[in-house]
Amino acid sequence: MMRKILPLLVLSVVVWLCASAQFKGSVEANSPRPDVRGPSASLEIVSNRQALRSLVERADSGDMVSIYHLARLYDTGYDSIPCDTIEAMRLYRRAAELNYPPAQNLYGFRLYNGIGGAKDINAGLEWIEKAALNGDPTATNNLGWLLLEGEGVEHDAEKAAFWLTRSAQNGVPSAMILLGDLYREGKGVEKADTAHALSLYNRALERGMRDVWPRIYSMKHQEWSLLPPEEKVAVGMYYYPRLAPEIGVRIFEAAATEGNVKSMALLGDALSRGVGIAYDHAKSTDYLFRAAKGGDPYAAFVIAEMLEMFPDALNGLTDDNDLKDAQSWYEKAAQKGVRTAEEATRNLLNPGYSN
After folding, report:
1. If exposure means fewest CB atoms within 10 Å of the residue's CB, which of 139, 202, 262, 268 is most exposed?
2. Total domains, the chain
3. Cα–Cα distance, 282 to 229 (Å, whole number)
4. DSSP tag of 152
């Protein structure tokens, strides 16, 4: 179980503790997390020694935010501040007792996981819940996850949905994924709602949670398979190439089997760059050639460029010398408004681009 509850950490958090061995194990996107701002946020506050002295003075005077940031510095060590996890825990508790929500969440997180001291699941849960009640977005995500899967917690999907909704509304992408799972399965919510689940997953994607794409595809691919080819391509282009190219490529493959020329051009692009699918020059050339013959201007322009550089580029695909003439393909592309590489890319990736 402990392997499941290690935090989602940004790179700057790797140096959290002097004893880094405490962080061995897998990292899961939806598991309880520390304050996601990481130690770097505290380091920015103390950009010079005068600022550090000022931070210490404010902490000594009882300012809860300064106490919290000083604790973060003791976690890593900085300038005259030694790496001291015991002192860090003391300061986290002090800031938490002063009702600072990020400190309550982080102190609870560490108690729950036994980081920097003895493991105390019950006390950790209490502090995380206090932070959640005080509106800390990370804590509301953590509490929601714990109510679903946490060790030493009575699982309650309805309460989890409540907290995850609050966290998702505050922009926490991992909460969007967990809440999406509940709506997909109809657990802890009034009824199953795959449309709302998709909206939550897409929002998480837009915030960088790329590994949510298999959830989306497994939930929607049967429905998408029934769409006309043009509508398939429109859905695929929402995800390709930025959000989840893996989804886009799979949809383009389905549309290509139905003879859709645009999807062939998009597959040629994906295969030529290894985006959402393994790089494969031969398959890329085949798709682009088929798309060009079908009248796609992007594909025609790319085929022209290939033939200009490598006159034998289409060997094995055609014996028709007329189809191996670069200039004729440039002309076909130009007839549809594509005369440069930039215009070709706009034509491929912009659904609203007019030829």
Report:
1. 202
2. 3
3. 24
4. T
Asked if residues 31 and 5 have their Cβ atoms less than 8 Å apart, the reply is: yes
Tens-place pLDDT, residues 151-177: 889 999 999 999 999 999 999 999 999
Nearest Cα to 158, choosing from 137, 181, 184, 189? 189
Same-domain pairing of 201 and 316: no
Q: Over the stretch 33-89, which tens digit does the pLDDT of each residue have?
A: 555 445 555 555 556 778 888 999 999 999 999 999 999 999 888 888 899 999 999
Q: Which CATH number covers residue 338? A: 1.25.40.10
DSSP 135: T
Which residue matches tokens 């060009």? 292
Same structural domain for residues 173 and 231? no
Extract the tokens encoding 116. Answer: 């920097």
Contact 132, 125 (CB under 8 A): no
Task: Domain of residue 252: give its range.
Answer: 227-349
What is d(CA 321, CA 319) in angstroms, rounded to the nearest whole number? 6
